[in-house]
Amino acid sequence: MLNLTVLVSGGGTNLQAVIDAIASGEITDTRIGLVISNKKDAYALTRAKDAGIETLYLSPKDFENREDYDKAMIGAIDEKGTDLIVLAGFLVVLSPEFTDHYRGKIINIHPSLIPSFCGNGYYGLKVHEKVLERGVKVTGATVHFVDSGTDTGPIIMQKAVSVKNNDTAQILQRRVMEEAEWIILPKVINAIAHGNVRLEEKKAYVIE
Ligand code: GAR
Known about the structure:
By secondary structure, this protein is an alpha/beta fold.
């Protein structure tokens, strides 16, 4: 049984997609043991509680330094016997100490086709604003392993989504979520639960 800890900061629609996929049997042999948020009022916490999942609020702001925050996070995550950490709209940049500690055990969902529209400053709605500004016709979402860089880890799965002429950032964000994020995140988790993701030095593969 793959035991997940999901890290969130906001609305939690990706968390909800994972909760629903476990409930429907699209993801098997998997449970969510813990949801951690750095925002006290994140709606994602309500979604977790409604699904009977244990929650924790831990913000770097409440710690004197990064080392102490990392220690608290690692303590909570390890206490639950976590096999995989899922960043589902988690907007805190993790320290290299944290990512090195969990090498190959953290995945992230990003709302663009990496290596486009990613890295520092590209998160949430901002990604879609930049996509519209640049005028690209295809965008999408990426699930990747997390390394010490921002959005630089091995790519596991991507899905493309069309950009339409009259899109606003909000409309495009919703389409990328519906057509890509909520589909590929559960697929990757299920593949990992069944040992079907191979991680090499810089690349990852889903074994079909
Ligand atoms: C999602 O679009 C996710 O891909 C993005 O934040 C949103 C969170 O929504 N993550 C990033 O931009 C990470 N760089 P949610 O809370 O409803 O899942």
